[in-house]
Amino acid sequence: MSYRLGTEASGLPLIAAKGLSIKVADGSTTEVAIVVSDGTVLPQKSAFSDEQMKQAELKKADMSSVRKRNGMKVVFRGLTYTVAHNSKRKQKLQLLKTVTGVIAPAQMTALMGPSGSGKSTLLDVLAGRKTAGELTGTVLVGGKPPSRKFMRRYTGYVEQFDTLVDNLTVQEMLAYTAEMKLEMGVGMAEKRARVEALLRQLALEPCRNVRIGGSMQRGISGALLRPPAACPAQQEADRNAKRCNIGIALLSDPRLIFLDEPTSGLDSYTSHEVMEMVMALTRTNNSITVCATIHSPSPQTFGLFDKLIILLSGRIVYFGNNGVDAIDYFERRFPELDRMPTSGANANCAEWLLSVTTQADRSGRADEYADAYQESALFQENISLLSQGRGTESRISITTIQELAVKQGTVTPLWWGLWILVKYRLVSNYRDPKFLLGRIVDKLLCCVVLIILYAGRGKDASPDNLINISSLLYMYTVLPGFAAISYMPGLVLERPLYIRERSDGLYSTITYLLSKMVEEMLVVLFVSLTVSACIFFSVGFHGQYVLFWLVYLVTISIGMVVGYVVAAWAVDLDVANGILPGYIMGLYFFTGYALRLQNLPRWIGWFHYLDFLHYAWASLMLNEFEGRPATFIGNQTFLEYYGLPQHGITKWEYLGIEFLFFIMFFILAWVALKYKKHGNR
Ligand SMILES: Nc1ncnc2c1ncn2[C@@H]1O[C@H](COP(=O)(O)OP(=O)(O)OP(=O)(O)O)[C@@H](O)[C@H]1O
Ligand SMILES: [Mg+2]
């Protein structure tokens, strides 16, 4: 490997050994970042002290305890990616156009280009994270087309926006991911050791017990930390969150790591620090394959990258060595360009490249630049690079072959995933009073109102009172329907996290859905037992309490899964809030109480068969009034007046039919969560 020397300000790669002073072009000496032989860049700008050397060794030791697998070569040929335009109907948009290149292990590859040039799209395609759109061309990892399952298990992806669990602490977040993503054979002690090594390596120890927090909640958002004076709280927060995301990507010991704008939102010092840490991964014994999109990096950060891909309007205009080679290429190929200043404030390699290519894009010369690249000797060199090592691909290790042929998208089995979700996510949610209050208070308040209004009325068997009792049974049936709305926000707001964790192979859809159900059902069990017992015994109902409780439990559970179905299908919370109340309100009219079954218009009356609230109310009515001798109107009993029971169905059968709705909506929720794609992916 060879390095060109450059000044720190220019962003060109630097190398120096202990005690070496460097003279730059203008004859002056300059302070440089120091690159030790393993590629670890020390933050100090001048001489090494013994302490610094010790720190560098510690970092290296930590990293080798985390890293065990080698990186793999990623080759992509003729990638063309097309999506349907999201606003212009029937129009197709080509986001990538015959993109060809290679990302090698032990190197840092930067993806640069103006906004909208297709950087994230290319990264997503390479990482196998595109679920929508049409992709042609090939991506080979280690010489073989990787399965989605392989990519889930053996690649790390750091998304542009942080996707972390708000209620967990930094240490818990890493431990949770470690327990989910490391093989069952890895003992707890090793999992803990890896988490500890990463906390040290990522300098996250000061905030290990601080909650991640969210937009409405303080956490590593700096409130509990005392950030360095030079570093404002928000930057400290972004830095910690970004490091935490990188830690998550590294935990599973990936072979490839993709980072989408890991430096955006960070100050230049922090960007450098974060990327230095990533670079250390590419240089340690088990070199990893790193590809990152970057936006306006500082010269120091830019200098850490070995290779550079520049995209314009979905086409590559440069793919080669970073630094002077890139500048040489553009200056030679396009002599009309102003040359890059070699000193002064404007001597910034990244900025010069970005401004040159952005100007070309804006002036409609993107294709001209892309064509020039395809006609260049550099392109031919790159094409020969693609086929290099082809012969050796058949000699890849057995482990690699097994990894590439992996059948399971998740590392751990369903039951383990469920247990870990309960252990971390459920417990952390239950720690949050807002979570519990939002699920309990509304039901308890309704219960209090019903008790105040109806206490003791169950004992009065007079025909006048029968209507009151059936009204109460109706309210008791339909109120849990409203509760369905409270189950939607969690799922919709958590969607980016769910998508990221699914793509990372942490768990399967069924595991996630079951964990959500367990989380809610524990609360529902407590609430339903309390509410139903208070109402049943204070009112003085006659039927069986167990049925009275089970109907409430099943109805509230159906509301929950209906909420999940809508939340999984709806584009956002506004749409979900529009659909669900409309559906639930519609059901209220077909229970058989608001309008008697025999009075429903014929053409739509059949709909009551599809109304789970009808079965719930009918079961409760039979439970209360069956066998009561009192007549209501004429010779009709109260039940006959409401056309009950239909087809001789018993109260338990009504409950059974209602339960079938639960199963149906549960399956629909699973299908929606698994197959409904949202966003640009
Ligand atoms: N379905 C779609 N309909 C319309 N435009 C789309 C669609 N999908 C993506 N785009 C646009 O295509 C462009 C390429 O997207 P991409 O996210 O890859 O760009 P990028 O280079 O990463 O940009 P940035 O630097 O802003 O992150 C963007 O302008 C994006 O808005
Ligand atoms: Mg992007």
Model description:
With about 675 residues, the protein is of the alpha/beta class. It is about 50% helix and about 10% strand. It has helices spanning about 50-65, 120-125, 150-155, 170-180, 190-200, 235-250, 270-285, 300, 325-335, 350-360, 365-375, 375-385, 400-405, 415-430, 435-455, 465-485, 490-495, 495-505, 510-540, 545-570, 575-590, 600-605, 610-625, 640, 650-675; strands spanning about 35, 40, 75-85, 90-105, 110, 135-140, 155-160, 255-260, 290-295, 305-310, 315-320, 630-635, 635. The strands form four sheets. It has a six-stranded mixed sheet with strand order 7-8-9-5-10-11, sandwiched between helices. It has a three-stranded antiparallel sheet with strand order 4-3-6, with helices on both faces. α15 packs antiparallel against α16 (about 465-485) and α19 (about 510-540) runs antiparallel to α20 (about 545-570). The longest helix has about 30 residues, at about 510-540. The radius of gyration is 31 Å and the shape is elongated. The two termini are about 35 Å apart. Residues about 1-50, about 65, about 220-230 and about 390-395 have low confidence and may be disordered. It binds adenosine-5'-triphosphate and magnesium ion (MG). Magnesium ion binds near residues 120 and 160. InterPro entries: AAA+_ATPase, ABC2_TM, ABC_transporter-like_ATP-bd, ABCG_transporters, P-loop_NTPase. It is a multi-pass membrane protein. It is found in: Membrane.
